[in-house]
Specification:
By secondary structure, this protein is an alpha/beta fold. The chain has helices at residues 21-41, 56-65, 70-81, 98-105, 131-142, 170-185, 190-197, 209-217, and strands spanning 7-13, 45-51, 84-92, 95-96, 116-123, 146-147, 152-155. The protein has a single domain, classed as Flavodoxin domain (Rossmann fold), CATH 3.40.50. It holds the Pfam family FMN_red.
């Protein structure tokens, strides 16, 4: 029996294309957290996806006028009121995108205090994976969010690979990060969730990246 009050997770995607790998990663992380909460806690989860590409003009107007249009205010309220946050940006010039930064510039710097935050990024090459540590983690630490230990970077080649004996595949990293977020929003220790997620019942099916993007178009 599910608990009566659902938990809320805000998933912010700064992808510019439609469909985008950034949105795809945000959806996969949200689903991983939702599944873990359903299995371990019998908790329902409401996921609110915030597509920044749809708010780009409103974000620019707010930056110069100081007044958020209704749609942007609703998105900011969804992020600040959520029990947990997923924030995903594509990599531009070795950092998060300007659109991503502009949105979080509009969030009060105390509004995310204590909120569990799962950070993730997408890029064309694995060389940019450190963007999570040198750019995104400090940003959310400044905003006083509780940034989870596992961050997820997805290069183009990761979408069609299940990993090897030395490197975890993207599906496994998504499950671990989603499990940590599920643990954090319910007040459990993250380390316990991480240990549980290392017990895998089987191999992950590898779905070609083109097919994964095509699936987004029919939603």
């Amino acid at each position: 029996m599910f608990a009566t009050t659902p938990l809320t997770i805000a998933a912010v995607s700064a992808g510019l294309s439609s469909p985008s790998s950034t949105r795809l990663l945000a959806d996969r992380l949200a689903e991983a957290a939702r599944e873990r909460l359903a299995v371990d806690q019998d908790r329902r989860v409401e996921v609110r996806v915030v597509e920044l590409r749809d708010l780009a003009v409103d974000i620019a107007n707010h930056l110069v006028t100081g007044f958020p249009p209704a749609g942007l205010k609703e998105a900011i309220d969804a992020v600040t009121a959520a029990d947990g946050l997923i924030a995903v940006s594509p990599v531009f010039t070795a950092s998060y995108s300007g659109l991503f930064k502009s949105f979080f510039d509009l969030v009060d710097n105390t509004a995310l205090t204590g909120k569990p935050a799962l950070i993730a990024a997408t890029g064309g090459t694995p060389r940019h994976s450190l963007v999570l540590e040198h750019a995104m983690r400090p940003l959310f630490a400044y905003l006083r969010a509780v940034v989870l230990p596992t961050s997820v970077y997805a290069a183009s080649e990761d979408w069609g690979s299940s990993g090897d004996e030395y490197t975890e595949g993207l599906p496994s990293r998504i499950r671990r990060a989603g499990g940590e977020l599920a643990s954090a929003v319910t007040g459990r220790t993250v380390s316990g969730a991480s240990r549980a997620l290392t017990l895998d019942d089987g191999e992950d099916a590898v779905v070609p990246f083109a097919q994964q993007l095509a699936d987004l178009r029919v939603r």
